[in-house]
Structure formats: C-alpha cells, structure tokens
Amino acid sequence: MRAVTTSPPADPVVDVVLPCLNEAEALPWVLARIPSGWRALVVDNGSTDGSAELARGLGATVVRETRRGFGAACHAGLTAATADIVCFCDCDASLDPSLLVPFVREVRDGAADLVLGRRRPQGRRAWPAHARAGNVALARMLRRRTGLALHDLGPLRAARREPLLALGLTDRRSGYPLQMVVRAADAGWRVTEHDVPYLPRTGVSKVTGTWRGTWQAVRDMRRVLAEPPVPSRAPAPSPGGTSS
C-alpha cells in the first residue's frame, strides 16, 4: 500500500478533513485513496485504538480535538487547514476520497461554491433503513428551509476554506454538516450535488449505527433548521445564485 502524500513541498493543493474516532481498521484504505499532492488531516476525536499513531505512520497530518462530537472534529480540521480548498470525508471507508477530484475542479473553476456527494448505497448493508429514513426526512425539511433541491446530507463535500470559516458555523455535534449547507444557502452560495457510491462502512457508526444515535442526530439537525438566518461575514465565494 502506498503512503498518502500529505506534506507537499509548498502549500497543499487541497486539504481533506477526516474526522476520526477509532477508525484504525479503515484508515489504511482511506488514506491510500487521497489524491497525490493533497493533504490528509486526520482529526483524532479521542480514539483508543491507535488511530492517531497509525494515521501519522501512514503520512497523514494528525489534529487532536478533545471535545467529542462530529462537528467539533470537522471544525478543528477546517481551522487547521491551510489550503484554499477544503474537503470533508468520513474516515470509515464508506466513501472513497478520490471521488472528490471532480468536486474540487468544480469549485476551482467557479461552477459551484459548495459541492456535495449524494450517497448511493452499494448493497443493503451500506445504509441501515433507520438511517436512510432519517436522512430522507431531513433532506425534505432542508428543501423547505432553503429551496435547494438536495436529496442527501452526506459528508463528502468540497468548498473554499475562507468562505467556509466566514459562515461562522457553531454546531459541534451531528448538526454541523446541515448547518454548513443551511448557512451557505442563506449566504447565496451555489450548491450542487452529485451521486457517489456509498459502501458498507468498517465498524459501527457512532452516529447512525443505532436508532438512538440516529434520533440524536435528527434532533441536532432539527435544532439547526429552527435557527433564524445568520448573515455570513463574507459574500458568496463566487457570483450567482443557488442551484442543484
């Protein structure tokens, strides 16, 4: 297996934020698929299985975030990033980070401001029924709230770093990905969505692996949807309205 290239001589072309909590089994597969010249930022959120040490040994840059929560890990990675374009990807081998290449191209070319992956499950094990049902309900509420014709709140995404920071994201739990989309829509960003294969994850999901975890995520996201619009500290990163 090749070691991921995470520290190019100059600034990284792209930073990929990988929130991580006990993902030692999946890390080699994920890191081997980071495109050449990009940097993997593995945000260790309190792993006890040696994930941080393994990631570092495979060439990734490890960021530690002691505050538990998916959003806390994602935002720590965004804050640590230095590349102009930042991507996000789960660290459980359910999504292939190499699929981000056209997402980055779309952002760099000015065709979109935020690009999202719409998960298409590959087999029955890829997406439990309760998690899929929760996602459908939240996507419906998101469409009503923003007017964006989106179908998924998947974690695979790309955008420019400075405009992302300017959104002033505050959720540090499961609502972080949703809050990013809601505030981007409120700021007039062009948001696009593309199908991506969704594989059976390695291990058990900390968020949607149980009905209780799924309900907690839905509750976090309902709270985000109830927030009033918050003005961004910066204009949309490129001209134009929103589209799907």
UniProtKB/TrEMBL annotation:
The organism sits in which domain of life? Bacteria
Alphabetized Gene3D superfamilies for the sequence: Spore Coat Polysaccharide Biosynthesis Protein SpsA, Chain A
Q: Name one Pfam family in it.
A: Glycos_transf_2
Q: Which UniProt keywords apply?
A: Transferase
**Where is the Glycosyltransferase 2-like domain positioned along the sequence?**
16-164
Q: Name one GO molecular function term.
A: transferase activity
- Write down the InterPro entries for this protein, in alphabetical order: Glyco_trans_2-like, Glycosyltransferase_2, Nucleotide-diphossugar_trans
- Recorded family membership: Belongs to the glycosyltransferase 2 family.
Q: What is this protein called?
A: Glycosyltransferase
Organism per entry: Streptomyces fagopyri
